[in-house]
Every structure is written in C-alpha cells, then in structure tokens.
C-alpha cells in the first residue's frame, strides 16, 4: 500500500524531448482535474530537468544519474541509455535504490521492445505488454 | 529597501538580450533537441562576453552593475583569457592563490551570515548570484545548477513575505537569463514561464489589465524555443516527426495566445491560434479545437480589415516580429498537376516536313511529343487534391493559383468542402483555372485563398516539404480553327465542350452535306489537313465520303501524312467541303468483329445442303441479334490538323492543333438484306444471287432491281430478289485455294482481301436494288455491303476451273426445264468442257445417273438404268484456242445413252483427272445436272 504523499511519475523521453512513454504511480484509474494538472506540472518539471540530465550525461560515465533536479516537493532522478534515450522519474520521496532497480529493469524492457522490427525509435510506445511490465516493476520497486 | 532599485529589471533591456542571443540560439538548436557540447559553449561564451551590446544576464540581474566592478569590465580586461579566467587571475598573484572551493566557501559563509538578517536579504541574493557567476565562468554547470537550486528556492517560497510577487518574478527572470547564458534553454523556458506566473499572480484578487499581459507577452513568446517550438519558421510543418513534446507545446502556445488576446493584440492572437491549429490540430481534443475555431472567428470579426497570414506582423511589445505563416491544413491542398489544354486547344510540335524515321519507336520522340504546352490567352487547368480535415463543413473563398515567370490571371474558385468523418477519408480532386497572358516559362508556385476570414497564401510543397514549382511552357497565340456542319448540332458532353452534330438516316439513304473549316483568329494557317474517322465497312460505300469535287486540292503534305485533303487557310477565312452520308447496313460493321473476323458476315446464306457443304464453319455461324432491332447509333469524326504560322525556337517545327467535329448518325433499318443464296445462272458463266430483302419499316416498300423490274414488300415482310450476275473471269478458279496455301496468316488474309476487292468491283455493278417507301416519301438503295464483304458469296461468283455446258439432242440444255425422252430412245448428250486454267487439262469424263425419289428421301444412284451406246468414259484434253474471246479453253465430248426405266433422272458429269493433273476439288467444277423425264410414250 502506498504511503501518503508517495507519488512517482515515470517518463521515457525521446531524442526530441518528446515523452514516448509515461506512467504514474500509484496508478490513477480516472483522469481527474487534479491529476491532469499534476501531469502538466510533471511535464514542465521533467522537461526542465532535461538540461541538467544532458549535462550530467556529458560528464558522468554511469547511466544512472541519481537525483539530478528538484522543484518544490518533486525530486527528479534520471537514467540515460546508451542510445541517449532518457528515463526520468519524478518522485515526492527519496527512494534511490528502488528507483535504480526500476530503471535497470525498464532499460532491459525497453531494449527488448526497441529490438522489435516493427517499432520505430522515438515513436510512442503503445505496447500493453510494455505497460504491464512497467506497472509490475513499479509495484515491485517503488511502492 | 535601498537596494530595491538594484534588482528591478528593465524589460526592454531584457528583451535586447533575447534578441542578441537569437543568432546563437538558432545555431545551437539542432535536430537532436537541446544537446549541447562544451566546444559550442566556449564559442557562445566568447561571443556573448565580447559583445559590446551585450545585454545578457549581468545586465538583466542588475546586481553586478550596482557600484561594483562589473563583469563586463572584467571581461574587457581579460578578453584574451576567456577560458579559465579565475585560474588566470590567480596565476597573476602566485602568493595568494585561493582555490575554487575556497571561493565558494567564502561565498557560502557570506550567504550564511546575510541570511541571519532579514534586511540583508537582497545582499544575500546578490551574493548568491555572484557565486553563480563564478561557477558559470568556471563552467561548472552541475554545481551551479545545484547551488542555484539550493539558494534561490527560498526566495520563491510562499513563506517569503519579504518579497512580493513582482520581485519573485524578477528573480525568476534573472534565473531564466542565467540559464539562457548557459544555453540551458529548457531551464530558461521553465523559469521564464515561472516569472510570468509570479507576475500575473494576484494576491488581492484584483483583475489583471491588458498592460499586465502586454508586459508578460514577450517573455512567454521568447520562451517558446525552450519547448522546441520555432516561432520564426514561416512554414509550419504538420508532420509529427521532430515535433517534440507536443502537449507542452500546445499548452505554451495556448498561454501565449491567451496573453496576446488579453493584451488586446488581436493580430498576434490570430497568428498564434493559426499556429496551434496548423501544427497541433491532430493532437487536440475536438472540443478544444472547436473552442479555438470559435475564438478565431470572434477575433476575425473584431478586426477592421482582413488579416493576411502571409505578412510578417510587428508587435510593439518586446519588439517582436511574428513571421508570415502558411495555413496549409485548412484546406489540405496537395499533389498539384498541370493538365494539358483541352484537346482542341492543346498544341503539339510538328515537323515542317515529315521525314520517315528509321525507328519504329523512339522514346526520345515520344518524350518530345508529350511535352506540355500552354497557349497565351487559353485557360489552363491545374488539378489538385483537396481535403477538409475538419468534421464540419469548410468554406474556402477566392481560391486562386499563384504563378511566376509570365503574366498570369487566375480564376478564383469557391469551395464548400464537406465534413470528413475520418482521417483516412479520400481526397477530392478539383481543377483550378488560370489564363497566361504572355509567352515564356510559367512557374506555378502555390495558391491563395480566403479561409476563416483570413487571407492565406501557401506554396505547393513536395512530400519532403520542399517548394514545388511546376514549370509550364507558354507558347504565343496560335490560330484556332473550328468546324461547322450543315447538320443540326447535338448536345455537348460535360467533359468536352467541342460542338458536335447529329443526323438520322434510313439504311441505304444518301445525303449530301457540307462542312466548313473556319479560322477565327488573326494567325495564318500554313496547312490544314482533313481526316475522317468512321466505322470501317468491309464492303460497299462508307458511311461518310468526301466529294472529290469539293474544291480543295490535295497538296504534297496531305499525300505524305495520309490526310484526305490539305490546304492553307488565311486569317478570318473559311473553306467549305462537301461530303455524303450513306446509310450503311446498321446491323454490323467491321469494327464490331475481332481481328480474326474482319471479313464481315452480317447476314447468313440461305439454308442449303449444297451451300452448307461448301461453306466453311466459321462463315456460316454468324450471330444474329435476338432482340428486335430498331436502329443503331454510329459515330464518326471529322478531324482537322492545322499548323499555325508561328515561329518556334526550332525553325523546322510548327505548332499543330487538332479540331474535330463528332457526328452521331442514327441509322434506322429500312429495307435490308437478311439472307442470300447463289444459284446457277442461265449459262455456266452466270449466277443468280438470290437476296432475301426485309422491309423493316411499318409501311409498304417498293423494290426496283435489274433495270425495270419492280416488286412490293409488305411491312415487316421478306421477299426474295434474284439478281443475275456474270461470273468474274479476272479471278482464277483455284485462286482462293492458292491463297490459303500462303506462308503466313497475314499473307493469306492480304491475298484473300485482294481477291475480294476484285470480285467486289465486279459484282457491285449488278447488285443495285432500289427501295422506296411512298408513304414516307423516302427512297434509297438496299445496302449490300454485307454481301460484298462476304467471301463465301463472292468466291461462288468466280469462274470455276472446269465448267460444263450440255447440248442434248442438238439442243442447248437450259436448267429450268427437264428433257422429256421416251423409254429406249437414243439420247445424244454433248458435253462442252470449259477450263479457266492457265495450263491444259487432261482427264476422263463419264456420266452418272441418279433417280430422284422425293424431296425428303433425296436421290439414289441408278447407273444401271442408263445404258451407254458408246464409251462410258471418254478421255479429253482442254487446250487454249487463241480465237476464243473470253480467253477460255474448251473441249467437246459426246455420249449416246438410252434409258430403260421410266422416271425422273438426273445425269451428272464425273471428271477424273489424269495422273499428272492435280486433284479436282468439288468447288473447282461447275456443272448443272441434266434432268430427264423418261416416259414410255412421248406425248
């Protein structure tokens, strides 16, 4: 069961800064106005953090960049793949180890997905299986 | 509060920093998003710091220039030591060399001390920003970002009541400028937008004025680049690729539109709405896009004049210039293709003298012929695909083509496009019309239209978003020739505006008409060639024939090009040509048949065992319509090719046009041939062609044939007309047999056709059956083209290889009567053997006797009832005699016979060729059997 105020927003950002996959934890069934506003705020914060992530990616040899940005209560952790696809996680509480493992699992999942010849790099990921796996790993490592 | 003025930011100076940085921005933006490299930053830093008009971060913050040594002066001093400036500075003073950590520690201590006093909050902030400048100069952006985040957050917090929202907005602007200096465009955009939020924050619930929105509008506009939007692009692609974060972009643009609208900048607001709709229509929910369209409609109504999207728009606030844009999504117009002129206006290049080519086909020649040419003052058409992607009706007004190169007048069109139900709905193709007014190369570049009350100008684009200019060659004004006919005009088709005529004739009728070739233009026509395209008839007169005395002479060009007539035509002049329309047999033409059956068989020979035996299967099985036949519509065309006396680039070529006059001729069957049969004539050298003539009219018809013979035919009835025709001696007996032995099928066909034409010319003189319907006061000839095209009929009129004539008891035998003889009476039968062969013919002649039992039972061979008094089989040799006028060979053989049984007998000659002679086929021999009526006692 999620702790009160423990929220996560996971996004995979393409080469043109476009989110190609997004997921909120805990899962929200219905789109309320509050959740939509939060999603917009997350977009802004995540997009602004990309500058810092790119700077880290230039200087850091590791893929997992730990905590890279913060705005109000939202922390931003990031993971940069070998093909410069950026995973970002906005979270309200520190959970470094869980986020790291989540990123690792999602990286493997993303690699498998991107090897599908019918998938075009930078296009939105609409695979149910991918989403299911992300949900599973989120429940396992984040919540 | 003494330090307050120091942190106030002059928005105008702030703007100058944006504009000065745009060149750097545009260079650093790459398709890879906002990826930066240190080498680029060095260049940027050098540019920005060395610029004398630099209004960047230092000026924006206002902190550094507040009584202290400004960064700009430091930069001037150390412009040659841009890289690692602090290290270089310290290198000058080796005795006191604090490290970066020492410096930052000193700043941290100072900030900590200032933090203890609320009144020193501005000093604290200034110290923070100074520390940031140091880190920036060291290019330690990660630490800078962390330092900035740790120390400026509290100024923006709601708990900070020392600073009002205006001050917080300025702090955010400082941060935005700082990040822009670092080329952190996304951070810059984030803080710029945050500053706007603070600026517009209303703590006391007061309403914001248009001035407030005018103040924040430039900041919002210049933050667009941080979200991957390039507002300076004139061409807003609607491709989803490389778009970036679409949701953020929509929200930012919508905020910008709202700011412009509330700032009372309707033109700018319209431009931003159009940008939103153009690029992000597919990403928006239908209600959102519908609201935007409503807003756009409201804004357009407010404007005193029509907003032109193709003009750059200057916004005074922030000195912003909004570029022109192309609204290519509403409607979506694509795939332009230039159409050739209408067939009667389209010119082609023709050589002045037709030289036979050594190639049957040359792709270069074909390419040359297919070149698209437009003519001055002739309306040209451009076909485009149009699609309305909205789910409601779209009205487009004044849709015109845009062109360069030569003077061009476009005809405006108005479209009402139906709503599209789905994205994949097929597009519609429409034609846009324009008239070139001068000769030269015309480039069709795009289109303009009025949509949503806006003036929209767009260029045609290729699939790769490149400009698509279509080149068309426009030639000088050419002569225009039209055809006028004495026949009444027919309704024209929708696609073809050329005039056409129509006529109705009974089959066999012949009418004379005139056609006039008129040159309406002022251009001299150096050559006019006339051709007639009409249904092919395999025999008899054609549907349309030009009178030989029509007054127009054939010239040399006409002979080489195959034109029926050729002449010249001056400006504003005309020529008249007479022609005849003949009502051919409407039941069938040669065009109706396949290639293998070009020889027409539209009527069947009469059912006859003898004929059936000799007629090939293919010729006897002609199909007949089972549906009652009432008439047939045949079309033919007068085609005129004419060359204008206009100088071309190549003197050996001329512009040629074609004009045609279609004529629809309805042929009503009147009196036609339904069947035929060939019977022996009075002599071996003549045949009776028995023709069944049907009166298809509802009135009595009179027939006149063979000079003065007359016959009446009742309505819908058939009568039999015998026509005596002599055999044709110009075709040898075995000619058709020899033709079938030719080496190839084509050679066989050609040879048979040649023989057919000889026979047609011979027989057609004797097939003159006139008909007249007195009640209708019409008359004509029975069309016998079907007979003349029938090879099976004509070949029976060939003089056979061997013909025989008989003389019985010194009386020439006529086939119409039986010869009455008594039982036991000696009958002398003299057979005259006539050969049409070139060589002498040897053989044996004998007689065979048959007794006719009845019509149903046929006849039986009763050779024993006839006794020969001399030889049963007599040898003969037919040799050519020079005195014979008909150039035929003859030989006489005599038999003496008696009959010993009563009855009706038929005596047939049997010829057995000698061993060295070729075998004789049944059709090679023609002999009428002699009919004897044997009685016991003659009366």
UniProtKB/TrEMBL annotation, chain A:
- Could you confirm whether the keyword Nucleotidyltransferase appears in this record? no
Domain of life, source organism? Eukaryota
Looking up SUPFAM superfamilies in the UniProt record yields: SNARE-like
Q: Which CDD domains match?
A: TRAPPC2_sedlin
GO terms, biological process: endoplasmic reticulum to Golgi vesicle-mediated transport
Coiled-coil ranges from the UniProt annotation = none
Which keywords does the record carry?
Answer: ER-Golgi transport, Transport
Per UniProt, subcellular location reads as: Cytoplasm, Perinuclear region
Q: Which Pfam families match?
A: Sedlin_N
Cellular component GO terms, alphabetically? perinuclear region of cytoplasm
Q: Which family does it belong to?
A: Belongs to the TRAPP small subunits family. Sedlin subfamily.
What's this protein's name? Answer: Trafficking protein particle complex subunit
**What is the originating organism of this protein?**
Caenorhabditis auriculariae
UniProtKB/TrEMBL annotation, chain B:
What residue ranges are annotated as transmembrane?
Answer: none
InterPro entries, per the entry = Ig_TRAPPC9_Trs120_1st, TPR_TRAPPC9_Trs120, Trs120_TRAPPC9
Trs120/TRAPPC9 first Ig-like domain: from which residue to which, for each copy?
352-456
Q: Give the highest taxon in the source lineage.
A: Eukaryota
Which Pfam families does the record match to this protein? Ig_TRAPPC9-Trs120_1st, TPR_TRAPPC9-Trs120
Q: Which GO terms describe its cellular component?
A: trans-Golgi network
Domain Trs120/TRAPPC9 TPR region: where? 163-301
- This chain's protein is named Uncharacterized protein
């Amino acid at each position: 069961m999620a702790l009160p105020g423990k929220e996560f927003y996971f996004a995979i950002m393409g080469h043109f800064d476009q989110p190609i996959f997004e997921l909120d934890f805990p899962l929200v069934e219905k789109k309320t106005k509050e959740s939509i506003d939060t999603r917009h705020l997350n977009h802004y914060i995540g997009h602004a953090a990309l500058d810092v992530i790119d700077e880290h990616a230039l200087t850091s040899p590791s893929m997992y960049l730990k905590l890279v940005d913060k705005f109000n209560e939202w922390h931003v952790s990031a993971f940069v793949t070998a093909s410069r696809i950026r995973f970002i996680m906005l979270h309200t509480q520190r959970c470094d180890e869980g986020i790291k493992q989540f990123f690792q699992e999602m990286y493997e999942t993303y690699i498998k997905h991107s090897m599908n010849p019918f998938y075009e790099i930078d296009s939105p990921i609409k695979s149910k299986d991918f989403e299911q796996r992300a949900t599973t790993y989120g429940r396992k490592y984040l919540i | 509060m003494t330090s307050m003025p120091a942190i106030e930011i002059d928005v105008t100076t702030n703007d100058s920093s944006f504009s000065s940085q745009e060149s750097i921005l545009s260079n650093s933006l790459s398709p890879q998003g906002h990826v930066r490299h240190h080498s680029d930053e060095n260049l940027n830093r050098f540019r920005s710091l060395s610029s004398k008009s630099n209004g960047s971060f230092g000026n924006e913050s206002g902190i550094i220039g507040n009584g202290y040594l400004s960064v700009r002066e430091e930069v001037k001093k150390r412009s040659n030591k841009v890289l690692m400036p602090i290290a270089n500075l310290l290198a000058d003073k080796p005795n006191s060399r604090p490290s970066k950590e020492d410096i930052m520690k000193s700043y941290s201590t100072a900030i900590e001390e200032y933090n203890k006093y609320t009144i020193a909050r501005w000093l604290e902030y200034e110290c923070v920003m100074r520390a940031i400048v140091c880190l920036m100069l060291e290019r330690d952006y990660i630490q800078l970002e962390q330092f900035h985040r740790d120390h400026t957050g509290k100024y923006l917090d709601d708990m900070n009541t020392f600073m009002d929202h205006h001050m917080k907005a300025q702090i955010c602007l400082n941060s935005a400028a700082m990040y822009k200096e670092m080329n952190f465009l996304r951070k810059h955009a984030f803080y710029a937008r945050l500053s706007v939020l603070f600026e517009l924050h209303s703590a006391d619930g007061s309403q914001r004025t248009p001035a407030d929105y005018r103040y924040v509008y430039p900041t919002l506009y210049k933050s667009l680049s941080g979200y991957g939007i390039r507002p300076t692009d004139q061409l807003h692609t609607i491709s989803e690729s490389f778009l970036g974060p679409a949701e953020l972009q929509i929200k930012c643009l919508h905020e910008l539109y709202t700011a412009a609208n509330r700032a009372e900048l309707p033109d700018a607001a319209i431009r931003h709405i159009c940008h939103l709709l153009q690029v992000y229509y597919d990403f928006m929910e239908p209600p959102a896009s519908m609201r935007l369209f409503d807003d756009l409609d409201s804004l357009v109504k407010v404007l005193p004049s029509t907003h032109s999207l193709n003009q750059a728009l200057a916004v005074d606030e922030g000195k912003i210039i909004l570029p022109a844009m192309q609204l290519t999504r509403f409607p979506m117009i694509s795939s332009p293709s230039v159409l050739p002129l209408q067939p009667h206006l389209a010119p082609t290049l023709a050589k002045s003298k037709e030289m036979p080519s050594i190639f049957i086909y040359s792709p270069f020649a074909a390419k040359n012929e297919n070149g698209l040419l437009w003519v001055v003052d002739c309306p040209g058409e451009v076909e485009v695909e149009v699609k309305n992607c909205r789910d409601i009706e779209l009205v487009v007004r004044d849709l015109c083509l845009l062109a360069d190169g030569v003077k061009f007048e476009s005809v405006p069109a108005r479209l009402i496009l139906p709503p599209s139900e789905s994205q994949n709905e097929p597009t519609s193709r429409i034609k846009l019309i324009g008239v070139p007014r001068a000769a030269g190369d015309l480039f069709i570049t795009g289109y303009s239209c009025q949509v949503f009350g806006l003036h929209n100008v767009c260029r045609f684009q290729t699939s790769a978003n490149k400009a698509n200019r279509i080149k068309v060659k426009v030639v000088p004004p050419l002569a225009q020739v039209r055809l006028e006919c004495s026949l009444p005009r027919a309704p024209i088709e929708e696609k073809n505006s050329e005039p056409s005529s129509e006529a109705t004739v009974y089959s066999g009728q012949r009418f004379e008409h005139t056609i006039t070739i008129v040159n309406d233009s002022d251009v001299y026509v150096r050559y006019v060639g006339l051709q007639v395209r009409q249904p092919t008839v395999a025999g008899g007169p054609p549907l349309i024939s030009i009178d030989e005395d029509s007054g127009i002479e054939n010239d040399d060009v006409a002979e080489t090009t195959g034109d029926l007539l050729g002449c010249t035509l001056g400006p504003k002049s005309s020529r008249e040509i007479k022609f005849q329309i003949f009502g051919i047999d409407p039941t069938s033409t040669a065009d109706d048949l396949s290639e293998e059956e070009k020889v027409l068989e539209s009527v069947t020979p009469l059912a006859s065992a003898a004929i059936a035996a000799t007629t090939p299967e293919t010729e006897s099985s002609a199909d007949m319509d089972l549906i009652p036949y009432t008439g047939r519509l045949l079309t033919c065309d007068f085609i005129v090719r004419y060359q204008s006396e206009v100088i071309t680039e190549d003197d050996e070529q001329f512009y040629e046009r074609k004009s045609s006059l279609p004529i629809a001729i309805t042929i009503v069957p009147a009196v036609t041939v339904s069947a035929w049969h060939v019977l022996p004539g009075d002599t071996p050298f003549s045949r009776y062609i028995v023709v069944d003539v049907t009166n298809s009219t509802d009135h009595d018809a009179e027939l006149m044939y063979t000079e003065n013979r007359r016959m009446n035919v009742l309505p819908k009835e058939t009568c039999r007309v015998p026509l005596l025709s002599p055999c044709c001696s110009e075709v040898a007996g075995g000619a058709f047999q020899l033709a079938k032995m030719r080496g190839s099928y084509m050679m066989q066909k050609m040879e048979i056709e040649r023989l057919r034409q000889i026979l047609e010319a011979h027989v057609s003189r004797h097939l003159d059956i006139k008909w007249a319907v007195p009640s209708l006061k019409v008359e004509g000839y029975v069309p016998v083209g079907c007979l003349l095209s029938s090879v099976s009929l004509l070949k029976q009129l060939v003089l056979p290889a061997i013909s025989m004539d008989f003389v019985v008891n010194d009386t020439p035998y006529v086939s119409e009567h039986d010869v009455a003889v008594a039982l036991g009476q000696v009958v002398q039968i003299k057979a005259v053997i006539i050969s049409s062969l070139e060589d002498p013919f040897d053989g044996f002649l004998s007689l065979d006797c048959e007794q006719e039992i009845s019509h149903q039972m046929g006849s039986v061979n009763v050779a024993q009832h006839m006794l020969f008094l001399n030889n049963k089989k007599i040898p003969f040799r037919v040799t050519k005699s020079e005195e014979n006028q008909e150039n035929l060979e003859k030989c006489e053989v005599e038999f003496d016979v008696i009959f010993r049984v009563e009855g009706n007998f038929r005596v047939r000659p049997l010829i057995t060729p000698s061993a060295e002679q070729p075998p004789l086929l049944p059709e090679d021999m023609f002999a009428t059997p002699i009919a004897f009526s044997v009685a016991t006692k003659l009366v």
